[in-house]
Amino acid sequence: MRLTVRQIVIAGALGAIAILLGATRIGFIPFVLGIAITVMHIPAIVGAVLEGPVVGLIIGLLFGLFSFAWAFIAPTGPGDVYFQNPLISIVPRLFIGPVAYLAYRLVREPRKSALLLGLVLLLAAAAIGIAYGTPTLAGNAGARWVVLGAALALAALALAGLGLTLARYGEIAATGVAAVAGTLTNTVLVLGMIGLLGSLGWVAPVPWSVLLGVGLTNGIPEVVAAVLITVAVVAAWKQIEFGRKGARIFRGEG
Amino acid sequence: MSEFGAWHILTLGHYLPMGSPLHRLDPRVRLLSVLVLGGALMVRGQLAVLFLGLLLVLLLLALARVPLGHALRGVRALVPLLGVVLLLQLLFYPHRRALVAGSPALWQAGRFVVSAAGVVALVALCLRMVALVLLLTLLTSIADATDLVHAVEGLLRPLQGIGFPAHELALVFVIALRFLPLLAREMERLMKAQAARGADFGHGRGYIVQRVRRTFPLLVPLFVLALRRAEELAVAMEARGYAGGKGRSYLVRLRMRHADWLALAAAVALAVLLLWLDLGSLEQALFRSLG
Amino acid sequence: MKPLIEVHSLHYTYLRGTPLETVALRGVDLVVYPGEVVGLVGPTGSGKSTLLQHLNGLLRPQAGRVVVDGMDLGDSRTDLRAVRRKVGLLFQSPEDQLFERYVADDVAYGPLQYGLPPEEVRARVRRAMLAVGLPPEAYADRPTFALSGGERRRVALAGVLALDPQVLVLDEPLAGLDPAGRRLLASLLEEWCAQEGRAIVWASHSMDEVARSADRMYLLAEGRVIREGTPREIFGDAELLLEHGLDVPAVTWVLRELARAGLPVRTDVLTLEEACDVLEGVLR
């Protein structure tokens, strides 16, 4: 895991941005009803797309460490108590970069992704098979598992199809997918960890319905924001042109 | 500067070569002690204990010969944040439960009640925030970037055996620390420059896409600038012969002396003391006197 | 002639009331009339930056008055956005502020933010781009980040010009450009200022720059105006400049030394051309 000088410095610089975003208002875009969506995870995604999974991992680590420390230094609400637990603030953030990178690579190299997706589908099928086959799960509970397995398989198929079509649009589409993947990782793992630790009794439990609600109301806008910003930044840095090839202002748009 | 936010906290304490006994400690000890004490402060919630912790930090600052004004800079950055935090904490504190547990009520407005326990918890929180910021200022005042690299690297080096890139990570931390004030200044400059063009960051309307687009004039140039500076720094480092951590020789070899071990032991002892002290009885006495 | 900008007895202290307060301005007076280029010269820490930020309302005066075309910036009711349409401020390295993918869109950002109708915005963008020597036909659809540093700086300038300000306030506008770039930008600015009812406030470290372009200048040090006058008057007083840690324009220096060595030359010379004329006169 040898890092080049360039990777080290970029990891540091983007990590600094993540911390800066967290410590000032800029990191939070106000949305309706006083909800604010965060963009602090974006440096990790950008770092992963530009320089690889290790850089993304390190930036995620910096993000997590800051999130952890800030929950003590400046707690702004009851939710911050959760972030005082490193399993919630640090561990999930480690995955943002690598997952984003993986998504980016999968879309860029469709042949490899076809192979990987085949594997995923196989696993999903196996899961369904096991669930169905176990006698104790036959009946109502069994049906639920089958539906879950089928849904997973369908989702995998849909994503595969999406990925394969997007692959034609090159780097920008791959970056967008990476942003989606990275943001979802952040949302799902953090909320999932809160739920898991809650059910284990390690932190004050939060009902799964609430977590799902927060995940949707915060998560969806955050994905949108992440895609827009990540793509804008990567396109600017790599000087990639995409979409319309000219200024909006002279094409009749405002 | 005032209308552009309280980010001063990131320009916290610069290194002050005061030559105090604390400055002369092994950098690892400096870092570890701060982490250990900081950890203890993070865990405790009792007002009296946190007060003692704050006194301890102030004492350390004096020992390090850090001038009060310098230390206060970090705290001053906290002030706007403090107001918001305290208000929110006051609202979300389980006052009713505290009343049931025996705390007297201090104020009542309709259905909303403020318990003494709530106020005490609030003051404790205040003390903790201030203590932590002062502790951070202490660290940055007694250890400069090089010290910190040596410290983090030294502490992580045992892990290098299993392929953990201790040196690289230490460098990343220090670079991030160096970039923070730089980027904070750039961000302020960007905000002002865009404001001079009529940019309006504050008042959000419209769908999410529109709101996000409104942050572009700030975020896109910030990222591009940071990446550009990072590239320049990397080239400069390579030009000076930096080639990574492998086989790197060091001019300064870290060796722990008696003073270092003593200081570390003292720090750990103090942290344990803070963790172990139970001054809850003092709080109860306070409640009774108010009741 | 009615001044475009008036600054009376301006005071400003950063972090006032804390143990870390720094006094930046101690009673500065400044006035800008239409048609002139006003130079602002001073060492680092003299308060140049602070003063510039008062001219478009980024900072509000703590004591004293700042009046822009009749609008008092000390009055909290003053609409700052209106002020910023009259006074365009360009920070150092303004090319760092570009964010749009295509040049024309970045230039259009300002006018669009002010809610101007698209047709008018298009016209302004075209005019502004022409004014900075980046013809719209060739540059409108160019990707912003692919341009050279000098070109991007001109895009940033165009962005401010698109708001059609009356006063341009520039902080080190030529810093970091190569000589050709400097000449180009300087001539573009002079051309712009030659228009009816315009003025420029030009802050710089470079004596040569100010000597060449400014009609009138202020010498700032430690938050106060030390001297005000034409470049010729101020640069003639080399002792004053040196006293405040500033340099004299190179040619002025050379001629001073020559005069000290006994040659009968004028010392109030600012440009290379003048110096050549003076020397030719002496050598004949």
Can you walk me through this structure?
- The complex is a heterotrimer of chains A (254), B (291) and C (284).
- Chain A is mostly helical and 254 residues long.
- In chain A, 74% of the residues lie in helices and 2% in strands.
- Chain A has a two-stranded antiparallel ribbon.
- The mean pLDDT of chain A is 80.
- Chain B has helices spanning 27-43, 47-63, 68-92, 95-100, 116-142, 145-156, 166-196, 208-213, 216-239, 258-276, 280-290; strands at residues 105-109, 112-115.
- Chain B has a two-stranded antiparallel ribbon.
- In chain B, helix 1 runs parallel beside helix 10, helix 3 packs antiparallel against helix 5 and helix 7 crosses helix 9.
- Chain B is mainly alpha-helical and 291 residues long.
- The longest helix of chain B has 31 residues, at 166-196.
- By secondary structure, chain C is an alpha/beta fold.
- In chain C, helix 3 packs parallel to helix 6 and helix 4 packs across helix 6.
- Chains A and B meet through helix 1, helix 2, helix 3 and helix 11 of A and helix 3, helix 5, helix 7, helix 8 and helix 9 of B.
How would you sum up this structure in a few lines?
The complex is a heterotrimer of chains A (254), B (291) and C (284). With 254 residues, chain A is mostly helical.
SSE topology:
The complex is a heterotrimer of chains A (254), B (291) and C (284).
Chain A: H1 5-23, E1 28-30, E2 36-38, H2 42-51, H3 53-73, H4 80-83, H5 86-89, H6 91-94, H7 96-108, H8 110-133, H9 140-166, H10 170-200, H11 208-238
Antiparallel strand pairs in A: 1-2
Helix pairs in contact in A: 1-2, 1-3, 2-3, 2-7, 2-10, 2-11, 3-7, 7-8, 7-10, 8-9, 10-11
Chain B: H1 27-43, H2 47-63, H3 68-92, H4 95-100, E1 105-109, E2 112-115, H5 116-142, H6 145-156, H7 166-196, H8 208-213, H9 216-239, H10 258-276, H11 280-290
Antiparallel strand pairs in B: 1-2
Chain C: E1 5-14, E2 22-32, E3 37-41, H1 48-54, E4 63-68, E5 71-72, H2 80-86, E6 87-90, H3 103-113, H4 118-131, H5 136-139, H6 149-161, E7 167-171, H7 179-193, E8 199-204, H8 207-213, E9 216-221, E10 224-229, H9 231-236, H10 238-243, H11 250-260, H12 272-283
Helix pairs in contact in C: 3-4, 3-6, 4-6
| The level-1 CATH class of chain A | Mainly Alpha
Largest β sheet strand count, sense and barrel closure of chain C:
6 strands, mixed
Distance between the termini of chain C: 44 Å
Unreliable parts of chain A = none
What is the arithmetic mean of pLDDT of chain C?
88
Which fold name is given in CATH as the topology of chain A?
A: Arp2/3 complex 21 kDa subunit ARPC3
Proportion of β residues of chain A?
Answer: under 5%
Q: Biggest interface in this structure? A: A-B, 49 and 63 residues
Give the CATH architecture of chain A. Orthogonal Bundle
**Could you say which overall geometry of chain A the principal axes of the C-alpha atoms support?**
globular
**Radius of gyration of chain A over alpha carbons?**
20 Å
Strand arrangement in the largest pleated sheet of chain A: 1-2
The succession of helices and strands of chain C, N to C, reads: EEEHEEHEHHHHEHEHEEHHHH
For the residues shown, what is the average pLDDT of chain A? 80
Strand segment tally of chain C = 10
Derived structural class of chain A: mainly alpha
Total number of distinct structural domains of chain A: 1
Count every helix of chain C, treating DSSP H or I runs of 4 or more residues as helices: 12
Shape of chain C: globular
Order of strands side by side in the largest beta sheet of chain C?
6-7-8-3-9-10
Number of helices of chain A: 11
